Each structure stands twice: as C-alpha cells, then as structure tokens.
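Chain A, query sequence.
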Amino acid sequence: SIEYDSTNNRLVVGSLSTGRVLGFSLPLTNGVLSLSDAYVYFEGGTRGAAPSAFATAGLQVDPQDPCLLYAAVGAYPAYTGPGTQIGVATIDLCLGDPRAPKYMTDLTSLAKAGGSMCNDIAVPEWGNGDLYVTDYLGSQLIRVVGQNTDSPTYEVLIASCPGCNGIEWIAGGMLIISQLGAGQLVKYAPSSTTTS
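Chain A, predicted structure.
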C-alpha cells in the first residue's frame, strides 16, 4: 500500500517482511525509490508478546488529521496457526517516535486458527480513529472504534467475507470491498447488515 504524507510531501510505504513504514521525499531522485533516501516513520518490530508489528500491509491517512497514519499490522511470516497476531497501529507522521506506534489496537482475539492477516484499511470522512480493516486470510471485516484512545473497541462486522482484500470508504457512508477470490466488488453499508 502507498499513501501520501501531505504535511512532509512524502510517499509512505510499508513492508510486509520487516513491518517498517518508510517515507520518500518528492520529487523522487531519478524517479526511483532508494532506501538510502528513506525517512523512517516506524521501525517495525520483532516477534514477541502482542501487540507487536512484524508486517505492515494497508495504510490510510486520517482524513481529518494528516499527521495520523493507520497501518494494518500482523505477524510475518506466521499468518496461520497458534499465536497469529493482528492489529491496527496509529503512526504519527509529524512528531512520532519510530520505535513505537502512537496507538495500537491488538485484534489477536479475532484471529482465525486457520489464518488471519489484516490487509487493508478504510477510514470514514470524520476520521478520529474510527476505521474498518479487512482480514484477508480470516475472511472477515472488522470495525475499530476509538483507535486513537487507550480503550478502543472492535467487532467483526462481516464474519464471512471470502477473499476480503482491498477496501475503500465512499461518499454516502458506504464501503466498497474487493473480494479477491470471488473476483468481485461488494458494496456494504456499515449501519446495516446487508451487502450488495
């Protein structure tokens, strides 16, 4: 996933293998990303007690606070079996400490025994730590409320979402979800329990 840090004019990318979140100043030198030019927003983590970030997948900047970046995180490469860890991290793009996210919501209790991987994130236009995250391997859609607090809540909104992959919030309060395995886009209204 790639996001844009409008405050610092950087492209922001995450790493599945290290969990690091890096920024690259624009314009790019010779149109190429170089690790020697990278700004480290978040150093990632090592496997250990939850919550830790070992892989970073989907990224989304908060629409109301361009300093806040939400990252779907999880264990790498152990996306399956006992101890699978998943979650959402808030990374401060402006004044953050690269050693730790500003906030971390541990979603490990929702991980499926057969595998879970938080893959993409969508944030409503009001931002403020309310967000939706797809669990690609667990085939579920998760809602987090109050991500940027010490006591966030979370729930599974769709328990059967095979191949639930990319996700986007659109005007009118709807989510568009890409179901990779089914090769389709699904429209979902979070305030209801129906998809179309």
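The CA atoms of residues 139 and 161 lie 5 Å apart. The mean pLDDT is 85.
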